[in-house]
Structures are given as C-alpha cells and as structure tokens.
Specification:
The protein has 389 residues and is an alpha/beta fold. α7 runs antiparallel to α9.
Length: 389
C-alpha cells in the first residue's frame, strides 16, 4: 500500500506544513515526528485491517496566486489531512455501532470533536494526541473482533466508501501522471474519457450486477469502472484496453486497490486487465470471457460507425439475457425487425434508453443519455420458423 507520506515527499515542493510547529513539538506523542520546517508533523492512522495503518505528513498543497504572488492553498492537489479526516469518518460511520461510537464521541464532544477542533485551530500537539486517542480505540476494537465482524456484515463497501477507497487508489497511482492520458488524437476511437462513479453506480443498479456476475469493460482506460464494479458487488470483473499507457495505469491501480481493500478488510472481487484490441478478443484470450459476460460496458461515445458495427457483430456471441451498456445505441432508432432485418446483429438487442445528469461523464458537465441493450433472441424465433418453412 503506497503511503500518503511517500506521495508528499515525492512532491514536497508543492506542500507546506499545515500546523504551527513552534509551540506544539513537546506533545510527547508517539505519532509525532518533527524533522524541520519543510517536513512538518507525521501521524500514523489505524485502518480496520488487523495490521494495517498508514503514515500521513500533516501538510497542505499550495500554489502561487495570492497578493504579491504569495502562496495559497491548492484545492486541486491531493490534501493528506482531508484524506485522513475522511478516512476517520468512514471508519466511524461504516464500521462502528452506536455503542462503539460512544468510545470516540461525536462532533460535539470526545475524540471526534478534538480531531476537528485541533485541525481547525491548527494546533499540532492537540491534533496528534487526538489521532493517537483514535488509534488506541480502534486497536482495542480490532482486538475484540469488532472490525472483522463489521466488514463481514458489510460484505461490500457503500458507494460513498467505494468512491473514497478508489480516490485513495487513484491519487497514489495515477493523479500525478494524469497528463499522459491526454496524448491522444481528438475524436478518434482512442480518445480518452471516463464514465464517472455516479453513473457507474446507476449502471450497477439498473443491470442488477451482483457477486455472481461476470462484468466486462471493453476499452477500460485506466480501469476505474472495473474497480468500482468489483468493489461494490464483489463480481468477476474484466477490462481490456488497446492503449499501452492507460492499461499500464489500470494494472498499477489494481495493485494498489488490492492493498487498500485489505486495509479496509473488504473483498476485492476477481479482477483482470488485458492490453489488446477488443475487436480481436481471440488474440487477447478474452473471447471466452465475452461469451460468459452478464454485463458489458462500452464507452463508445467517440467511436466511428465501423467500430460500432464491428462491436455489434461481436455481440452475436453474447449469451441470452446479457446486457450491453453504451453511450451510443447499437440499434438505430428506426430499426424494425422483419424478414429482411431479423438476421442482423442489432435485431437480437432490446434497447432501453436512460438519462444521466451532470457529472455523469468526464468530458462534459452536461447530462445526456445512455443505453442498456439486452440480448433477446426469443422474439426472433417466429422469423426463423418462417424462414425454415
């Protein structure tokens, strides 16, 4: 698991100490390490996993932009203190019952109050002590089996927790090199764009993905959809991506994802990424996976007609009841099944159109539509019967 501390050290020129170090260094806390004004304070945070923890440098991201070219907080960069606080609250809300939460207090009193109070006051000694107190309670609860029981009851993370874990994964593996993902020809089949988590959540619900499902993302990019689907459902999830750079990042994310899910005591699902052309699944060793797939996602928003047509031909090999999720429909609106068209690949797909709202995709803030096409060959049987007569 890539430590938050390592990330900040690698980008230290962009960060400054958050807490006032002059009066708070005598706290005596085991978590505090003060090297100099450039490294600031360090804390270790306990995770739900039995022997899992993470080191955080208590620093803030800055950029030039204030009066007289002074430094201001950079809200677009990774913020380790925000990450730490969000992690604390997810442990508190998702893993603890009310009687266990009482050991930590709440926003009005106790350890949870101290975390917020000393962070807001930039009181380093107080904040470090509050983290130590939080860790002490969490270690006790881990020893008592509380975290293990909570994780088993949860089975899969909530959407909100899944998003937090995947943000932790992305920030440690991709974010600092994300510019490399934009080096593709505009409006080509290889243009990079992501379906955002809020829309993936909707897709999971509408397709009824579950732990017994087989999921496939054709053109998976850096693998965000595959990881989210696996995290939220525990299903078998596959991604194929033709471009080397995004596929490399997908595999890098998968490694970090496995470590993060272990730290949160959650099942990863069975996940596989392959680099290759989804129009040549046989060469990639994924043809058999396609035939087993329950749900296939294709972000075909920028695909040309030839690519969409070739994909439709592949869908002839899908099993009955499989669902294809896409940003453009594979079935023309004026398509009608008759004696002349029943043999076309589009005719096996029964399409439903759905609306998504702002922030559903990465390339625009506007809403739009997406499509779920279900393989339904039964309605073609009368045409086959007539053809055979």
């Amino acid at each position: 698991m890539i430590q938050s501390e390592w990330m900040i050290k690698a980008m230290q020129s962009k960060y400054r100490p958050y807490f006032n170090l002059t009066d708070d260094n005598d706290s005596g806390s085991q978590s505090s390490v003060t090297s100099n004004d450039n490294t600031g304070l360090r804390v270790v945070l306990e995770y739900p996993g039995m022997d899992e923890s993470e080191r955080f440098l208590l620093m803030r991201p800055v950029r030039k932009g204030g009066a007289g070219d002074s430094e201001v907080e950079d809200k677009d960069e990774y913020n380790p203190i925000t990450d730490l606080m969000r992690t604390v609250y997810f442990i508190y809300d998702d893993y603890l019952q009310p009687e266990q939460q009482m050991l930590l207090g709440d926003d009005a009193q106790g350890i949870m109050r101290n975390l917020t109070k000393y962070r807001n006051r930039r009181h380093g000694a107080g904040f470090i002590q509050a983290v130590d107190d939080f860790n002490r309670v969490i270690r006790q609860l881990k020893d008592q089996g509380v975290m293990e029981k909570s994780a088993k009851t949860m089975r899969h993370p909530s959407y909100e927790l899944a998003c937090h874990i995947l943000y932790q994964v992305y920030s440690r593996t991709v974010a600092h090199q994300a510019d490399a993902l934009n080096n593709y020809k505009a409006f080509s089949n290889n243009v990079y764009g992501e379906i955002n988590p809020i829309l993936v959540k909707d897709i999971i619900a509408r397709t009824k993905l579950n732990s017994r499902s087989v999921f496939m993302d054709m053109g998976c990019g850096i693998g965000n959809i595959v990881l989210q689907v696996a995290a939220q459902t525990g299903c078998e999830a596959h991604g194929i991506e033709i471009m080397e750079t995004p596929c490399k990042y997908a595999k890098r994310q998968l490694k970090e994802y496995a470590g993060r899910m272990r730290a949160w005591r959650l099942a990863t699902g069975r996940i596989h990424f392959r680099q290759g052309d989804f129009l040549d699944l046989g060469a990639c060793g994924m043809y058999d996976t396609l035939k087993r797939a329950d749900v296939v996602v294709v972000n075909n928003y920028a695909f040309d007609w030839e690519t969409n047509h070739a994909l439709a031909q592949l869908f002839l090999d899908l099993k009955e009841g499989s669902q294809v999720v896409s940003l453009k429909s594979f079935v023309p609106k004026n398509h009608k099944i008759n004696q002349r068209t029943f043999h076309m690949p589009e005719s096996i797909l029964r399409v439903q159109e759905y609306e998504y709202f702002s922030d559903g995709v990465s390339w625009t803030n506007n809403g739009g539509t997406y499509y779920i096409a279900t393989v339904d060959r039964k309605r073609l049987q009368p045409f086959y019967n007539k053809y055979q007569q």
